Structure formats: C-alpha cells, structure tokens
Amino acid sequence: MPQMAPMWWEIMLIMFNMTFMLMMINTHWEYKKAMMTEKSENKMKMNKWKW
C-alpha cells in the first residue's frame, strides 16, 4: 500500500518517539542514581551507628 504520507507527520512521529525515549532513559537513570545515593547514605548511617 504505497500511499503518500505527509512528510511532516512522519517527522513529527520520529521526533516524538525520540523525545519519549530520551525522557524514559533520563528518568530511568535519575531513578537509578537516586537509589544508589540512598543506598550509600544508608551504609554511611549504619557505619555511624556501629562506631
């Protein structure tokens, strides 16, 4: 089905997908970073409690 799709629509879709992917990756990394910092802070607290 070789219908002529408007070019701007395709570009819009691609741009939207790319931005969505970037947002997802960014949120994922932010979450991971937060988790890591939380864990390290907890470790520090534990060490303080121990000594």
In DSSP terms (H or I, runs of 4 or more residues), the helix count works out at 1
Main structural class: mainly alpha
Low-confidence stretches: none
- Evaluate the radius of gyration: 22 Å
User: What's the pLDDT, averaged over the residues?
Assistant: 79
The helicity comes to over 70%
- The secondary-structure element order is H
Keywords: Membrane, Mitochondrion, Transmembrane, Transmembrane helix
Transmembrane segments: 6-25
Organism: Crompus oculatus
Protein name: ATPase subunit 8
Explain what the structure shows.
The protein is an all-alpha fold and 51 residues long. The protein has one helix at residues 7-50. The chain is built from one helix and no strands. It is rod-shaped.
Write the layout of secondary structure elements.
Layout: H1 7-50
Notable features of this structure?
51 residues; mainly alpha; 1 helix; rod-shaped; transmembrane helix
Provide a concise account of the structure shown:
The chain is mostly helical. It is built from one helix and no strands. The chain crosses the membrane at residues 6-25.
